[in-house]
């Protein structure tokens, strides 16, 4: 009998999944990767094998209304692909672990109660992450589940870096800088000694640039600072989120414009960022193709904010040895990387234009004082490793 781990990353209208086979050696083997998109409207399931071959691309229809329906559809497909196989564990990406969860944890009813209390801190992600866990519990009650948090990697930051300068009684209630995209940063930190050994023990800024975007300042592979703070709204401009905003603007939305809490939440999480500036799209690819002046302005602001925050991260590190790009935009947009690197020339980044255009791993010149890299992230493998270790399914990964 073949043994597998199932990895889930649930969003409001999508369910991303990976199937990993239990390894004979020390690490998991990817069997398939896919997603169910359009949950609640026109759902479609698609998946490819670990080698990239198409396994399924099929419309599911409007009957897939929520995460439970999506999980039922996924379960049906998994049975058709891996009938007779055994699911040893299910690992989940959970965006917010709060101050309590400094590492992956096995899911229990008490853990779920605590995680539900954090929903208001990540309303765009947390409810759907937890809904997927609850759906698996009903379908596979005897299969252990592991929650892996995007906040855990940043618990190595100093108390100063985690501080929010509000009254102490408020901060004691859990108001602090948490940082996010930790599973992505953890993976980059793990592979840097192999991919970029010269900078791995040094001062590195990793730019996770996608629909959600942030920076992490690392020293010797540990998080020192992050552009995301108490929630996933801070720092860089993102697809539909504004990044750092003067708190007075938020007060004005309530007091000056008379907007409700729900209206302000919708503006901050779903109508701002690249979409808000351009009025066209939250997708960087659409904006780069567009001739619209507003689209160009959105790209300009995205680059401006990234370069500005990189300077701030360099200050917290006392200098920089390497700059790493990852995630959807960071891995695929040579144009955005070029513009950010040009804005960072003052730090010592000298880009190799040809290497950047070819999406090579190292995109800086050999003599560049600060090297620049493109390293694809793999949050799902990170979750699989944590799940395997916590459930005793695999040995520690070297």
Description:
By secondary structure, the protein is α/β, with parallel strands linked by helices. It has two domains: 3-156 and 379-390, ATPase, nucleotide binding domain (Nucleotidyltransferase, domain 5, 2-Layer Sandwich), CATH 3.30.420; 198-374, Nucleotidyltransferase, domain 5 (2-Layer Sandwich), CATH 3.30.420. Helices cover 37% and strands 21% of the residues. It is built from 15 helices and 13 strands. The strands form two sheets. An eight-stranded mixed sheet has the order 5-4-3-2-1-6-8-7, sandwiched between helices. The longest helix has 25 residues, at 293-317. The chain is globular and about 60 Å long. It starts with a strand and ends in an 8-residue tail after the last helix. The relative contact order is 0.12. The model has no long low-confidence stretch (mean pLDDT 92).
Number of strands: 13
Q: CATH class of the largest domain, anyone?
A: Alpha Beta
What's the oligomerization state?
Answer: single chain
Count of helix runs: 15
User: What structural category characterises the helix and strand content?
Assistant: alpha/beta
Q: What is the CATH fold-level name of the largest domain?
A: Nucleotidyltransferase, domain 5
The parts where pLDDT drops under 50 for at least 5 residues are none
Overall CATH architecture of the largest domain:
2-Layer Sandwich
Share in helix: 25-40%
Output the helix-strand order. EEEEEHEEHHEHHHEEEHHHHHEHHHEH
CA radius of gyration is 21 Å
Distance between the amino and carboxyl termini: 27 Å
Relevant CATH superfamily of the largest domain = ATPase, nucleotide binding domain
- Please summarize the sheet with the most strands: 8 strands, mixed
Spatial order of the strands in the main sheet?
A: 5-4-3-2-1-6-8-7
User: What is the domain total for the residues?
Assistant: 2
Question: Quick one: overall form?
Answer: globular
Overall pLDDT level: 92
Strand content: 15-25%
């Amino acid at each position: 009998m073949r043994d597998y781990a199932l990895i889930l990353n649930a969003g409001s209208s999508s369910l991303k999944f990976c199937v990993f086979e239990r390894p004979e050696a020390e690490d998991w083997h990817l069997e398939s990767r896919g997603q169910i998109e359009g949950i609640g409207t026109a759902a479609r399931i698609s998946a490819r094998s670990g080698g990239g071959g198409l396994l399924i691309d099929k419309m599911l229809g409007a009957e897939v209304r929520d995460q439970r329906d999506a999980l039922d559809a996924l379960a049906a497909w998994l049975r058709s692909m891996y009938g007779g196989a055994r699911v040893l564990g299910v690992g989940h990406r959970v965006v917010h672990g709060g101050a309590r969860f400094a590492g992956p944890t096995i899911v229990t009813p008490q853990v779920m109660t605590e995680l539900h209390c954090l929903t208001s801190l990540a309303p765009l992600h947390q409810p759907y992450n937890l809904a997927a866990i609850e759906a698996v519990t009903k379908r596979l009650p005897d299969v252990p589940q592991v929650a892996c948090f995007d906040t855990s990697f940043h618990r190595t930051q100093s108390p100063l870096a985690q501080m929010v300068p509000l009254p102490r009684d408020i901060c004691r209630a859990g108001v602090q800088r948490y940082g996010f995209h930790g599973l992505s940063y953890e993976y980059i930190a793990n592979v840097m000694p192999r991919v970029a050994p010269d900078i791995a023990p040094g001062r590195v800024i990793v730019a996770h640039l996608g629909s959600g975007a942030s920076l992490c300042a690392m020293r010797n592979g540990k998080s020192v600072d992050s552009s995301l703070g108490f929630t996933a709204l801070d720092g860089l401009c993102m697809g539909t989120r504004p990044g750092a905003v003067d708190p007075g603007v938020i007060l004005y939305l309530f007091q000056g414009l008379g907007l409700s809490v729900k209206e302000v939440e919708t503006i901050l999480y779903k109508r701002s960022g690249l979409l808000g500036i351009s009025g066209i799209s939250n997708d960087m690819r659409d904006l780069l193709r567009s001739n619209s002046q507003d689209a160009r302005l959105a790209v300009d602001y995205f680059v401006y904010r990234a370069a500005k925050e990189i300077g701030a991260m360099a200050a917290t590190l006392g200098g920089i040895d390497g700059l790493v790009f990852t995630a959807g935009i960071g891995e695929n947009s040579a144009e955005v990387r070029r513009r950010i690197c040009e804005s960072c020339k003052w730090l010592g980044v000298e880009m190799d234009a040809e290497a950047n255009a070819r999406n090579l791993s190292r995109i800086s010149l050999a003599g560049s004082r600060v090297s620049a890299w493109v390293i694809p992230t793999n949050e799902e493998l990170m979750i699989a490793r944590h799940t395997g270790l916590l459930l005793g399914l695999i040995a520690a990964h070297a």
